[in-house]
Amino acid sequence: MVVVGSGLAGWSAVREFRKLDSITPVLMITADAGDFYAKPTLSNALVQGKAAAQLVTTHAEKMVATLGVTLLQHTHVTGIDVQTQEVHTQSKGSFGYRQLVLATGAKAIRLSFTGNAATEVLSVNSLDDYATFRAKLKPQARVLIIGAGLIGCEFANDLAASGYVVEVVDPGASPLASLLPLKASTQLRESLEALGVRWHFGTSASSIDRVNDDYVVAFASGQTAVVDVVLSAVGLRADMTLAQAAGLATERGIVVNAQLQTSTPYVYALGDNTQYASASAGVSRTMPYVMPIMAAARALAQTLTGTPTDVQFALMPVAIKTPALPLLVAPALPGIQGAWVNVQDGIWQYIDVHGQVRGFILSGAQTSRRAEQAKLVTA
């Protein structure tokens, strides 16, 4: 078995596979060092004073020894031949596979800007990215975050709580506008404002210029921000480069069936690069969170070891790491008609047209009521 990618999806797939099969040779190919870490920790590590190396929970050498795999570090896969069942690499040659697992993750979306410093915008999607970002942060640095979504808000909280001067620009009307009802979004905005975060809503960054030691960022509204660091947090896009070149079906991610098989036999995918067919009845979507990866890895291991198993996703609330206002969000599945109802201070329920609870949001101290609210949700 060949696994491409050493993020949470890749290592989880191998770990679950090894619980069922300790004999089959496993080759993992990764473009980085292969150390195991939780990517969500990247957006709240500053306030803890952690360097990139401190975010590694298990070094690659130990993962290799524990799971009995062959690891090719710092190796780029250049192509997949699905006819001969081979994976080609840039520097290590080609390798045949009986089963291939694509766990290539997602890439940070890069927006286009004008200006002489347009290419100097940072994004944080790996340990190396985090190390670069942290090195740029001088004491009391001024940081502009582009994007007020989940990651943008988490970084805003982390930076502001760490003593940095933070501004956020977003074309929406409020933070996490696509995920939260207005009242919850307003509470988050006010909580982060109390930490010193300054918002620029209803506009977007258009140009970024280096002027002496500063970055001058011009907004579409005509306003400007003068900062030391510009961080883009506008989201991730599934990395489908290899899959598309190999002719696999792709849409918003690599399309898989309920057993995580791609459109080509013997090739499977899971993680942030994947568009799951079984996320809900009749709905195919990407699921860029930790809990879906764990569920997918367990099902995939069964399938790879001879017991075809459909992946089943239970209710998977997402904890948003904004200590200024802790949030737990269990969104309704796409396509369900309904509305958010503020049933109690700090508790919202998504009620569908039949009066059933299909999701919930908890804020502040109410996040402790996760289990209680989960029981009320109709699958």
Description:
- With 379 residues, this protein is of the alpha/beta class.
- It has three domains: 174 residues, 3-Layer(bba) Sandwich (FAD/NAD(P)-binding domain), CATH 3.50.50; 123 residues, FAD/NAD(P)-binding domain (3-Layer(bba) Sandwich), CATH 3.50.50; 49 residues, 2-Layer Sandwich (Enolase-like, domain 1).
- Helices cover 21% and strands 30% of the residues.
- It is built from eight helices and 27 strands.
- A five-stranded parallel beta sheet has the order 5-2-1-9-20, covered by helices on one side. A five-stranded antiparallel beta sheet has the order 23-24-27-26-25.
- The longest helix has 15 residues.
- It starts with a strand and ends in a 5-residue tail after the last helix.
- The model has no long low-confidence stretch (mean pLDDT 96).
Describe the structure concisely.
With 379 residues, the chain is α/β, with parallel strands linked by helices.
CATH fold node name of the largest domain: FAD/NAD(P)-binding domain
What is the architecture of the largest domain at the second tier of CATH? 3-Layer(bba) Sandwich
Question: Regions with pLDDT < 50 over 5+ consecutive residues?
Answer: none
Number of domains: 3
Total beta strands:
27
What's the alpha carbon Rg, rounded to whole Å?
Answer: 22 Å
* Form type: globular
Layout of helices and strands:
Elements: E1 2-4, H1 8-20, E2 27-29, E3 36-37, E4 56-58, H2 60-67, E5 70-72, E6 77-81, E7 86-89, E8 94-96, E9 100-102, E10 106-108, H3 127-136, E11 142-146, H4 150-161, E12 165-170, H5 182-193, E13 198-201, E14 205-211, E15 214-219, E16 224-227, E17 229-232, E18 236-238, H6 241-245, E19 254-255, E20 267-269, E21 274-280, E22 283-286, H7 290-304, E23 318-320, E24 327-330, E25 338-344, E26 347-352, E27 357-363, H8 370-374
Parallel strand pairs: 1-2, 1-9, 2-5, 9-20, 11-12, 11-17, 12-13, 19-21
Antiparallel strand pairs: 3-4, 6-7, 7-8, 10-18, 14-15, 15-16, 21-22, 23-24, 24-27, 25-26, 26-27
